[in-house]
User: What shape does this take?
Amino acid sequence: MYRLFWKLFLSFWLALVVFAGGAVFAVSAYLDHAKAKQELRGREDGFRGMVVAAQLAADEKGYPGLLDWLRERDEDQLVPLLLLDRDGRDALGREVSAGVLARLQRHQQSAREGQPDARIPITLADGRHYWLMPDLQGASLSRLVARPKVIALQVLLAALSGGAVCFVLAWYLIAPIERLRKTAALYGAGDFRHRVGPSLGRRRDEIVDLAYAMDSMAERIGNLIQSQHTLLRDVSHELRSPLARAQAAVGVARQQAGEVADAEFDRIEMEMDRLNELIGQILSYYRLDAGQRPTAAEIQEFRLDELVAEVVEENQALAAEKQCAIGFRSAPAPSPFAGSEALLYSAFTNVVHNAVRHSPPGGRIEVALDRAEGEWKIEIDDQGPGIDPGLLERVFEPFVRADASRAKNTGGFGLGLAIAKRAVEYHGGHIAARNRAGGGLAMVMHLPVAR
Assistant: This one.
């Protein structure tokens, strides 16, 4: 889900691991350079304790016990610990460097001379003597890698701390981007009220600049859309009054002229009725698109099958004029539906009316109501010419008409399907159009059973 977050997180973590590996290599190189100059000053007390422990192991279990003790120490020590006899041979058969042999000879000479700082040998029951000698030359990167327990804890702590730092840093970068994504989704849904910039606090970077630029864009777009809605509403309301006066004047003129100009008056009244219908549809679309909700009195329970059947019955006369037939099939025993009956009545009427208008003479419109998987499915199929595939989604936009592929001069305004879409979406559903394989168009509406 957060692809950029994980890319940043893993990249930073890998960078830290590489840095840690480089640091280990650098330390190893430094040890290789300086180990010849190192001495055991300040570590003699601790070394004498190891000699005492080795002597106790030899006293308890003899020479095999001493070798076991030596192997255990060798597994968790970066600097090899050699166990040398009088001739300088290691008890585990490891190679002994010239520097270690020289130090062994100095310790043996000091013991013969009775010097107080002479290294105490480990004495076995049979009288053999062995000396513990650290081999600083043997401390290398390969030995370190072969003994992960030596630095396992340090590497683990470094990895965890580095991972925590990278996690915080990655989240610091991704969190505002995630807010931008969610807000952009709201803008895409038509909600331009949300702002991102103030929620980012005092941070100042390119992401914050982008957030404020996005807020400014949303404010301007929201104002433009609001101005458009206001203009449509005001113009529609203002047109109603002169239109009503014009209709009244036509009625008076018809009475005075008698039957001389009946055809002309009929045409004028028809155009006025169309204009009045257009104004009504614009106002209906404005209310839905502006997010105005029905009042509590308009929300009620009703039977969805009865509502669809009523719409089908009311369009039978229109279908008969075109010599078409409307068939209706409903799911058995549907439960009541809670919502705005007026809005859904308008949606169903617009879609069925649209199907009748575009059906050829002798065609058939099929209306089906089914219930499955927690939703109602209402499908209206016609036998018209269908819609160009490029317009299947745009046909639900206001004033978009599919005249290029549907029957022309059908008297529509391009608002019916836009109103139907918003009415269905208000109830938590969705509507889609698709061309049927055998010809014609299918309008499919999905409504959730429980909102």
